[in-house]
Amino acid sequence: xxxxxxxxxxxxxxxxRALRAAAPTAELMTVVKSDAYGHGMVPCARAAREAGAxxxxxxxxxEAFALRAAGDTGRLMCWLWTPGGPWRQAIEADIDVSASGxxxxxxxxxxxxxxxxTARLHLKADTGLGRNGCQPDDWPALVAEAxxxxxxxxxxxxxxxxxxxxxxxxxxxxxxxxxxVFRDMVAHAEQAGLRPEVRHIANSxxxxxxxxxxxxxxxxxxxxxxxxxxxxxxxxADFGLRPxxxxxxxxxxxxxxxxxxGVSYGHRYVTPGETTLALVPVGYGDGIPxxxxxxxxxxxxxxxxxxxxxxxxxxxxxxxxxxxxxPGDEAVLFGPGTGASRPSRTGRAPWARSPxxx
Length: 358
Hints:
Elements: E1 3-7, H1 9-22, E2 27-31, H2 33-38, H3 41-50, E3 55-58, H4 61-69, E4 75-78, H5 87-92, E5 97-99, H6 102-115, E6 119-124, H7 139-152, E7 155-161, H8 173-191, E8 198-200, H9 204-209, E9 217-220, E10 245-250, E11 253-257, E12 262-263, E13 269-270, E14 275-280, E15 297-300, E16 303-308, E17 316-321, E18 330-334, E19 356-357
Parallel strand pairs: 1-19, 2-3, 2-9, 3-4, 5-6, 6-7, 7-8
Antiparallel strand pairs: 1-10, 10-18, 11-14, 12-13, 14-17, 15-16, 15-18, 16-17
Family: Belongs to the alanine racemase family.
GO molecular function: alanine racemase activity; pyridoxal phosphate binding
Cofactor: pyridoxal 5'-phosphate
């Protein structure tokens, strides 16, 4: 096999349990958007539920519908809406939806009236990230209209939420600033009569390092898959997390070359002396980023090495120095590997396509 990606669902279940332990007073939402970060949404969602995830989080309605179609009946939220979205279908599927402005709230209310169901709705506050979410100046109007719709029975405001900008940078002043704004906006909503089931702002980084942000619910995405959100926080192992995916490939070529030999496009790497080069048959067409050229770590012949030269569309080269290998031997791009000592890594690995699962 040229290359394969193996997803270890036992590792995912262990990570979910570790993240629950990191926020013991809050419920846990496992985020499975974008095909569970490339790991396979439905199998990962099932494994997360088995490990005790209280909620699943999806970005788009289509992702949430796929989870319902696969048989998931638990608490499920999706938050990325555009005008004219399938609000009614989501309400009828008992999916929690989100509104960041009056247009979204009004569309949800209209859909709820049309189907005769009460919509479960979270109001999102922009506390400083500057993406989706309602600005503090606009919050009173959104809250007032939501409260009126709730009194009518069209909606139930089940959540108040926001998202951090820099929780993966320890001590960043925006963390405390966003928490302060969030508390103020929650207080205003509650003073207006809203009684949400959950208040939530913590992402993976905040779940692991900012306990005062846990409130009623934490949302863990990348950490669920055994990836530390940022090297500044430490390694995944520091938090008891295990990589869920291993990406490996079989060496396509191994050969001796003289010193001074250029390697790959542009000859951005030149061998410092006589050496052995190994060819790994995956490249940027498979999701290996071209910016990994000259920097990406690869485990070959028992050692972590660095990609030599430019990553091509379907291959790249590794300099083995004085070590030996043979065509067909395994190269591990990320994942558990063989227990070899690891270099410092960001954990932001490119996900492979069509993973197998175990």
